[in-house]
Structures are given as structure tokens and as C-alpha cells.
Amino acid sequence: MLDELRATPEVLYGLGIAFGIVVLLTPAVGGMARMLGAVDHPDARRLNRRPIPRLGGLAIFLGILVPALAFLDLSGESRGVLLGAAVATVVGAIDDFRGLSPPAKLSGQLLAAAIPPAFGVWIDHFTLPFVGVMDLPAWLGVPLSMLFIVAVMNMVNFLDGLDGLAAGVCAIAGATYATLALSLGKADPAILSAIVAGSCLGFLRHNFFPARIFMGDSGALCLGFILASVSIQGLLKTASTVVLLLPLLVLAVPIIDTSFVVARRLKHARPIYTADQGHLHHRFLNIGFSQRRAAVTMWLWCASLAGAALATRFVPFREGGDWHLWETVAVTAIALVAIAFSIFVIYLLEIVKLTSPRRRRRDEAAQSETKSPDRQTA
Asked: What's the domain range around 212?
């Protein structure tokens, strides 16, 4: 792996430049957001207790754009990814500044997602275990690719509800994708993924609790769009059977969070785009975790899954049809750590919550409000 990193120094250069640009630019973007009135004010649903500027995604996008223009081959697929990311960022910025209706926002996301396939970034083939290479016609592969991109954009957006959470998860995903794509000889996706990781790490300087700025939809949609696009460009379209599942494993935390929230809203017959406090990070807070502890716990969860993905790719547990004992033991041990961490999270959110003093107080308050005649009259 060190040899591969030395062979592609742009990966490290891009990460470092993106980090520096975002660290330096974010305060200026925050000041501009305050002047424009793009500010999150405290309310019953939000966790911040003071006004916090949005539009941090503009700093993230510029931090990605500058090194991308310097190091990427813009004659083909990467140009489509950057153009789509620009559209996604603009759609998110408009929503941060003026607000968009759900249909208008979804239309903007679909418009952004339609750009990469026009430049060749779509799933035209992948490899299934025991089946082999599967070729997809354009009429099927393009819509599937667009659906995947829009889904990841919204997953990251849903995850962005806690100081530093989405930026940390995207930094881990970007670094993991960069390593995987580099090992597969996909230079441009590797460089862009590393740039995403650097920009997210730079943004964390201002976004970790207590946050001084939020990335807003402009940042969440931009990051989700690029992570989805590079996973198609650099990972899914390969001849490797195991690589097919790696992007899903790396993004397992936002996938689980979104799946849980959507299922909960459907169960209660509420629109899936309606905001609430049913996300995983809210559940951590309900059992007494601080924002810092909740964010770090979810980062570690994401990192354990990313570690399992990297082990699956780099530890040669099976070669030429033969299983290697110690390598198989190593991969199994790493996978068990990721599974154990996931079980630990489920234990915290489903078992500990039942004995949480904060939850008991909240339930008692809700019951007293229900029984109060004045509350019922109101």
C-alpha cells in the first residue's frame, strides 16, 4: 500500500490542499451566511442552543474543486462528477438560503444525478458471486446509477443532525474509498475521494462540537453526490466479486440510519421527508450521551465497518481457489470486531434506553402533559 501511495502522490497532495483551503475559507463563508440570513435558529427540533450559520457546504465544495482542477483528468468522467457536484451544491445552497419544497429539491437532485451518466459514470457491469460479470443495458444501468446517487445524497443529508457527525463519517468513507480505488488502479476516483476526506477533516475544525458553522444541505448533498459517484466510477465497475459489497459496507451507518428513519415514518403514516428526532444520533442523546460522545461513537462504528471492508480487500485470505488459514483467521477477527461493535450499538440504543433516566423523565413529562386538563384544552 505504501508503494501505491508513493506512485500516486496526488492523493496526498489533494488531501492536504483540500484540508488547508477548507480550514481557511470556512470562517469567511460563515460570516457571509450570517450576512445573508442563512442561519439555523434554535427550536424544539434542533439541537443547537444559539444561532449557527449554514452554507458551510460552499467552503467544502471550493475545497474540493481547487485540488480537483489541479490533479484530475477533466477530459472524461471526472468532469461529469465535478459538474454534477456543482449542481448538487447549488441545489443545497438554495435550500439552505430560501428553502425548497420536497418535489423541487428531489428534482434538483435528479438533475445532478443525471450528469455523471452522460459522461460515462454509470453501472454498466458488475460482478456477482457464483454468477460472474453481469452486463447492464443503458436503459437499466443509468436509472439504477441515478437512484443510487440520489439515495446516498439523502442518506448523508439525513445523517447531518449532530455537530461533526456527517463530516466525520464522510471523511472515513472518503479515505477508505481512496485506498480501495488506488488498489484497483483507479487514479482519478482515488484522488477525488482523498480530496473529499481532506475537505471533511478541514471542515471538522469548525464543525465539531460546539459547532461554529453547519455544512447545511449544500455540503451534505455535495458530499453524498461525490461519494456515490466515485464508488460507481472506482469500485462498482470492476471484475472483482468482493468489491461489489464494499461501498455498501463503508456507507453502512448512513444506510442503517436512513432505513430505520424511513421505516419508522412509514409505520406512523408520515411523509418520509418530514423531519423528526428519530435518527440514531437522537437516540444516543436520549440515553444520555453528549454530542461529542455520540458523534465519536458513530465514527468508531463507521471506522470498524470500513476496516472490515479494507481487510476484505487487502488480506489475501483466498487466492486461486485456495483458502489461507491465518489470513482467513485475520479477516474473520476483523469482521467479528465490526459485528461486535454493531451489536454493542444495538444494545445501547435498544436495551440501555429502557433504563435511561433521561428517557424516563421525558416519558413521565409526556404522560403528565396528556393527563393535564389545561394541556388538553390547549
From this structure: 9-356
* 362 is a domain residue: no
Half-sphere exposure of 88 (CA within 13 A, CB side): 38
Angle between helices 9-36 and 165-183 (to 10 degrees): 160
DSSP characters over 108-126: HHHHHHHHHHHTT-S--EE
Q: Could you give the angle at which helices 187-207 and 9-36 cross, rounded to 10 degrees?
A: 40
Could you tell me whether strands 132-135 and 125-128 are parallel, antiparallel, or unpaired per DSSP bridges?
antiparallel
The stretch 81-106 carries a mean pLDDT of 95
Residue linked to cell 506512485: 7
Q: Partners of 255 in the beta sheet? A: none
> Residue 239's CB: how many other CB atoms inside 10 A?
11
- What pTM, to 2 d.p., does this model score? 0.86
- 312 falls within a domain: yes
Q: What CA–CA distance (Å, rounded) separates 297 from 309?
A: 19
Distances (CA, A) of 309 to 201, 284, 314, 338: 21, 25, 9, 10
Judged against a pLDDT cut of 60, whether residue 64 lies above it is answered with yes
